[in-house]
Amino acid sequence: MKNVLILLVLMGLAGPLRAVAQASKKDQTAAKEVEMLERQRFEAQVKKDYAVLERVFADDLVYTHSNGKQNNKQEYLQSIRDGKSQYDRIEVEALNVRTYNDGRTAVVNGTITITLPNKPDGNPNLAHLKYVVVQIKDPKKGWQVVLWQSQKQPDKGL
């Protein structure tokens, strides 16, 4: 009788444990997708690949620059077109993705160094940023950035 009770308890736990394992696999897959897309988005910002940027930024994007200025999607893309937001290079130093909502919501935080056009005196112009991104997986459009916020960090002694 004791063995039957143990077997029933274990069988009762199997379903929830399997669901947790499946959710974990979904979260891991989503985290890998989002990390790859983050890197692709940075590359698109450098290359001014507007087709990619139009796709990865949600229509209700809130983009808060490190100086506190906020843009919506159209304003931010226009700032790239107008040369107000210029990126010669974006180097990812740290990237952490956490997923929620069964792998449909991702919170990303990281550290990047942006190489901007040289200063007027010819010296390098670097911005060290810590940032947070929230991405939502739209059933039709895929992963999209709904929120970006960054903060300048002290120079690394350059």
UniProtKB/TrEMBL annotation:
- Record's keyword annotation contains Lipid biosynthesis: no
**Which parts of the chain are coiled coil?**
none
The highest taxon in the source lineage is Bacteria
Arranged from A to Z, the UniProt key words for this protein are: Signal
Q: Which InterPro entries match?
A: DUF4440, NTF2-like_dom_sf
**Pfam families linked:** DUF4440 (PF14534)
Q: Which SUPFAM superfamilies does this entry report, sorted A to Z?
A: NTF2-like (SSF54427)
Q: Where is the signal peptide?
A: 1-21
- The record places domain DUF4440 at 37-145
> This chain belongs to which protein, by name?
Nuclear transport factor 2 family protein
